[in-house]
Amino acid sequence: MSNNKGLILVTGGTGYIGAHTVVELQQSGYQVVIIDNLLNSTVQIVDQIAAITGQRPDFIKLDLREKQQVAKLINSYPNIEGVIHFAASKSVSESVGDPLLYYDNNVCSLVNLLHAIKGKPIKFVFSSSCTVYGEPDQLPVTEATPLKAATSPYGNTKQIGEAILKDTAQAHSQLKVIALRYFNPVGAHPSALIGELPKGVPQNLVPFVTQTAIGKRPQLIVYGNDYPTPDGSCIRDYIHVVDLAKAHVAAIQRMQHNEMLDVYETFNIGTGKGNSVLEVINAFERITNVKLNYRIGPRREGDIIKIWADVSKATQELKWTAQLNLDDMLSSAWAWEKYINNNPFKND
Ligand code: NAD
Ligand code: WQD
Predict the structure, then answer these.
(1) CA distance 74 to 218
(2) What crossing angle do the helices spanning 326-342 and 205-214 adopt, rounded to 10°?
(3) What one-character-per-residue DSSP string does 134-153 give?
(4) What's the confidence (pLDDT) of residue 4?
(5) What is the C-alpha separation between 243 and 222, in angstroms, rounded?
(6) Are 7 and 80 in contact (CB under 8 A)?
(7) pLDDT tier at 122 (50, 70, 90 boundaries)?
(8) 282: exposed, middle or buried (C-beta count within 10 Å: 0-12, 13-18, 19+)?
């Protein structure tokens, strides 16, 4: 495979989704430089990426809140073709307690990055989220579904980020932007060398499931079974992180091939299929033959009842469709949990 498709800067590239995307970029022939301040990841991930792809991405430890440093870094790579911006803080509950951390880290970092690339012909991919839709009135949600008022500072930073990027792309013709609205990323690389590394007690379902199954957590609580859904538990559109990573490569290629219909575009990135919490648990038990210790608990405040994506725009325009199913997601997450149990990482 030729390594001449261009240099891509990946912010947050040692994080969960970033690391998987670096692998897919390298395997598609791109050169990669990672920027990360290791706030929520470890530099060991660079070795893990190199073990998968046989290529070591450049790694620069840098905090995107440091405006001068960001500008200096961008100037030191004059041939950057694209930027994929994952770096952000992502805990909804933390954002409620410390909103300024979120506005600073998620919004100021983005603005610093945009200042640094101003005037350069950059293809920019932004990590947005299905959280921008809130509790939808109609399902599935399309990209044209009106956004609801954000229910957390974290969600607000994604709406603000999208707005900043739209305005900036419209004002500066050199910049092209694709915002990918991820649904619920889960699973791990099939090599089991990279995956999600939650700090402390996981807030998300699948890491909690695998940590309970391996004995790190005593019991999983299902947050409510009295919702208006077929089995009473909440429904999400879970998307394999490897499929999600590939959507970023597709987005860069769409911009490189001048296929955009506008300077700023959004795409839903999900499978188009919803699964309930109880379906996830049952699938996990079936695939792994592990009996999960769980009980039904009260609802979690602020939870969306049900959401899944209409993915026809991504299929038609981005020419991307998810290939992996819930079983693939859960078996890879389980393989990764077993791997890190035997090979602990620094931020465990
Ligand atoms: P992650 O925490 O694993 O990765 C984010 C990375 O960014 C980490 O390695 C962290 O150290 C780094 N980072 C944070 N602030 C930084 C800063 N100021 N300077 C440099 N590096 C910094 O998270 P993830 O799950 O990989 O999420 C990636 C992106 O996708 C985020 O923008 C997140 O909001 C978005 N997203 C995630 C989900 C999800 O459920 N995981 C869903 C929708 C959207
Ligand atoms: C999934 C389902 C829970 C844990 C969050 C963010 C969102 C987005 C993705 C970034 C829900 C249930 C969970 C547990 C449970 N991130 N659950 N017991 O809530 O869709 O979204 O992550 O943009 O912004 O809010 O994902 O994995 O937390 O929950 O029953 O211990 O699992 O109630 O129905 P969610 P999740």
Answers:
(1) 46
(2) 50
(3) -S-SSSSBPTTSPPPPPSSH
(4) 86
(5) 27
(6) yes
(7) very high
(8) middle
Number of Cβ within 10 Å of residue 207's Cβ equals 22
Distance 262 CA to ligand 2 centre (A): 32
Written as six digits, the tokens of 277 are 């919490």
Tell me the average pLDDT across 192-220.
97
Please identify, by atom number, the ligand 2 atom nearest to the C-alpha of residue 220.
31
On the 0-12 / 13-18 / 19+ scale of CB atoms within 10 A, 323 is exposed
Predicted TM-score of the model (pTM): 0.98
- Regarding the beta carbon of 315 and ligand 2, being less than 6 Å apart is answered no
Residue 182: how many CA atoms within 13 Å on its side-chain side? 24
**Ligand 2 atom closest to Cα of 131?**
24
Is there a catalytic annotation at residue 154?
yes
pLDDT grade for 163, boundaries at 50, 70 and 90: very high
Q: How confident is the model at residue 345 (pLDDT cuts 50, 70, 90)?
A: confident
Ligand 1 binding pocket mutation candidate from 11, 14, 21, 36 (most atoms within 8 A of CB)? 36
Distance CA 148, CA 131 (A): 9
Catalytic residue among 16, 30, 102, 154: 154
The span from the CA of 40 to the CA of 258, in Å, is 35
Angle at 132 between CA 130 and CA 134, to 5 degrees: 90
All domains of the chain in start order, with CATH:
7-188+239-270 (3.40.50.720)
Report whether pLDDT(2) > 60: no
